[in-house]
Amino acid sequence: MNLTTYITEPAGLQSFYEAIVATNETYAPVEKLGKFDYKQIKTPPECQPDSPIEQTMSIKPLFFPKSARVMKYEATAEGTDVTDTTEDPLAGKRVILGVKHCDARGLQVLDEVYKWDYIDTDYQKRRENTIIISARCEQAATHCFCTSLDYDVEQSDAMDVAVINGLDGKVYIQARTEKGEHFLKENASGLAATNGSALEEMKKQYQAFSGSFRLKMDYKEINGKMQSRFESPAFEEVATNCVSCNTCAFVCPTCHCFKITDERIRDEGVRYKSYDSCNNIYFTLMAGGHNPRPAKYRRWRQRAMHKFVYYKERFGVNLCVGCGKCTISCPVNISIFEVVNQVSNV
Amino acid sequence: MEQLLVPTICTVDQLIEETPDVRTYRLKFKDDSLTDSFKWLPGQFVEFSLLGSGECTFCIASSATRKGYFDCSIKRAGIVTADIHNELDEGDEVGIRGPYGNWFPLEELKGKNLLFIGGGIGLAPLRSLIQYAIDTRNEYKDFTILYGARTSADICYKEEIEEWKNNESLKVILTIDKAEEKWKEHVGVVPKILEEKVNPVVENTKVITCGPPIMIKYTLMSLDKLGFAPKDVVTTLEMKMQCGFGKCGRCNIGSTYVCKDGPVFTYEELQKLPDEF
Ligand SMILES: Cc1cc2nc3c(=O)[nH]c(=O)nc-3n(C[C@H](O)[C@H](O)[C@H](O)COP(=O)(O)OP(=O)(O)OC[C@H]3O[C@@H](n4cnc5c(N)ncnc54)[C@H](O)[C@@H]3O)c2cc1C
Ligand code: SF4
Ligand code: SF4
Ligand code: FES
After folding, report:
1. Which residue among A80, A259, A276 places its CB closest to the CB of B51?
2. What count of CB pairs under 8 Å joins A to B?
3. pLDDT at A325 > cutoff 90
4. Closest-CA residue in chain B for A315?
5. pLDDT of A307-322, one tens digit each?
6. Contacts of A73 in chain B (CB under 8 A)
7. pLDDT (0 to 100) of residue B276
8. Over the stretch A259-279, which tens digit does the pLDDT of each residue have?
9. Above 90 in pLDDT, residue B254?
10. B134 vs chain A: nearest CA distance in angstroms?
């Protein structure tokens, strides 16, 4: 299928967004006290879809909720009544605007584990019913290293539609998937389709963007070296300050560990599935007190190895998209970029 | 995924006090029409909910060749298992998800001598395979069961073990750690009895073992000494679990999902895993 690129002015982009918000359930990064999170928006001004600011939360919660009700149960005279309370995860379609390409890539990474054997149909349904419109960053933020990882940031098809602010003052709106192409056919009717010169302009924008990175690494080298660094003494050093708060995993677009808990009030109860993290002290603690990862450095080792060795081995992709969110939010400034570099070199 | 986590209701048909801290619960589906669609092979496990308390992982301790029910033998260990022991009685209802995980390499066991080595509650997963193998006895050659417990009171499945002892096609060796007045069988820890009393044939034999970590550790050393190859020693691994189907990340050891790739592993496979269990 041919994927079309449209060209417009910033005002045209604004109208494009306005039309989307008017007719769709729409989400976008919204600022609150200096932090950005993806929230539903009702009016376009609330949204800052091309914000260059580092986002605090990823779009993960829109696909994999922070805490979901699994079921309700009740003890009755006839026995236990179990009600499947799993709500229809997403009946209608929705659009997310201003998605960072790293966040969009995070979903592609998560797809691998969710489509493996026992298929998570709720997640799948949310994926199918969502149109992702990305906004190309203009500049790398302090902790970004997305261009160093195993995906093509420039040509990524993790989003359905990519919005790129050209250096020439024009806005390029490009379909990246078939779904995106259809969406633009229906929603970008007022915009002009472009030809080859647009690709040149987009390339220039990408070059300026990719030249702005402070952090760079060779992921192949890191993947290779980490494989033999299980015993590296560096893990102990990098984990020293970690307070096992799990923040890094909660904000990460690719972390997906969860726990199952019950809440009971007399004869009624609810079961939840909620985020968890391998940095949690209790994560692998078993009845009787045995814990394969009792020390902090072992848990950090699991985190780093899962991201750069195990997931790659199992599913063929790194479990990290280089978004830097974990580092921005860590209360003690632990940087995954530094961790893997340090471990690889000691 | 949420639907995958919703359990099906089963009823406790029978409760058997095995030892002071182990009980076997015999379960049947409340909706009988589900009974036939619940298919499992020895080695697989279920997620067992005491609703209102929580969910735990237990192997299925009986064989599907014994139809109409399945057993879970539960040791009092932590919060949920204590609640199970304190609250769960015959006629009560529990939630079950599963079966999950892989199973013992049934094809590879055919035509082999089988040597089962169990310790304490570790006999539970072996019992599923033992029953299965008894029900398909012609497929195997020699059939030896070595089972040890701390004291005679800690022996699980006492009545069934009597049946095994009366079955002439099985060799059953029992041991307890320390001598007791009325005890007539062996005394000594499992690896010691294995080396000194069992005299197993190494050739054409598969060893299937499960027990407390310390027993496993020394048993593996003894098996090595006796000349068994790591690929011929099969065991089941215990790792903390939540989902049971490869999503929650809890049970991972390296890139292995114990809940999907296991819980049954050969010793050879275990040797390749990072030392994290
Ligand atoms: C594949 C497999 C088969 C098992 N089969 C049996 C069996 O047949 N009989 C038996 O008595 N025990 C078995 N266990 C161990 C059993 O799962 C734990 O003893 C039990 O979960 C402890 O729960 P608790 O709530 O009492 O303990 P707590 O320490 O209070 O645990 C809280 C939660 O952590 C999890 N958890 C804790 N310990 C373990 C553990 N060792 N393994 C897995 N999850 C754990 C459970 O979800 C539990 O609800 C098996 C474990 C595995 C992995
Ligand atoms: S956010 Fe920082 S302190 Fe908290 S668990 Fe992660 S690394 Fe440790
Ligand atoms: S580990 Fe950190 S940098 Fe990598 S994807 Fe997760 S939040 Fe982003
Ligand atoms: S128990 Fe959830 S992934 Fe294995």
Report:
1. A80
2. 130
3. yes
4. B255
5. 999 999 999 999 999 9
6. 51-52, 95
7. 81
8. 999 988 777 889 999 999 999
9. yes
10. 32
Q: What does the alpha-carbon distance between residue B2 and residue A183 come to, in Å, rounded to a whole number?
A: 30
Question: B114 and B93 in one domain?
Answer: no
Range of the domain at B91: 4-100
Q: Residue A314: which of B5, B53, B255 has the nearest Cβ?
A: B255
A117 shares its domain with A263: no
CATH label of the domain that carries residue B174: 3.40.50.80
- Say what the pTM is: 0.92
For the stretch A167-209, pLDDT in tens is 999 999 999 999 999 999 999 878 888 877 788 889 999 999 9
Domain shared by B84 and B161, yes or no? no
pLDDT attached to residue B174: 95
CB contact under 8 A, A82 and B7: yes
- Are B88 and B26 within one domain? yes
What would the mean pLDDT of A74-90 be, rounded to a whole number? 75
A203 and A293: one domain? no
Residue B21 lies in a domain: yes
Domain boundary among A160, A180, A210: A210
Q: Total domain count for chain A?
A: 2
* Interface contact A310-B5, CB threshold 8 A: no
Ligand 1, residue A287: give the atom nearest the CA.
29
**Partner-chain residue, chosen from A259, A262, A287, that has the shortest CB–CB distance to B77:** A287
3-state secondary structure string, B206-243? EEEEECCHHHHHHHHHHHHHHCCCHHHEEEECCCCCCC
Question: Is B98's C-beta closer than 6 angstroms to any atom of ligand 4?
Answer: no
State whether B230 and B134 are in the same domain: yes
Q: Which helix (H) or strand (E) holds A319?
A: none
pLDDT at A36: 82
Q: Which residue of chain A comes nearest to B96, CA vs CA?
A: A82
Residues A189 and A238 in one domain: no
Confidence band of A121 (pLDDT split at 50, 70, 90): confident
Q: How many domains does chain B have?
A: 2
Measured by CA distance, the residue closest to atom 6 of ligand 3 is A252
Q: Are A68 and B78 an interchain contact pair (Cβ–Cβ within 8 Å)?
A: no
Q: What distance in angstroms lies between residue B257's CA and the mean position of ligand 4's atoms?
A: 7
Most confident residue range from A5-9, A20-24, A116-120, B45-49: B45-49
User: Domain residues for A86?
Assistant: 5-210
Same-domain pairing of B190 and B232: yes
Are residues B95 and B110 located together in one domain of the fold? no
Pick the residue from chain B with its C-alpha nearest to A76. B93
Residue B273: count of CB within 10 angstroms of its CB: 17
| Residue where one domain finishes, among candidates A164, A182, A210 | A210
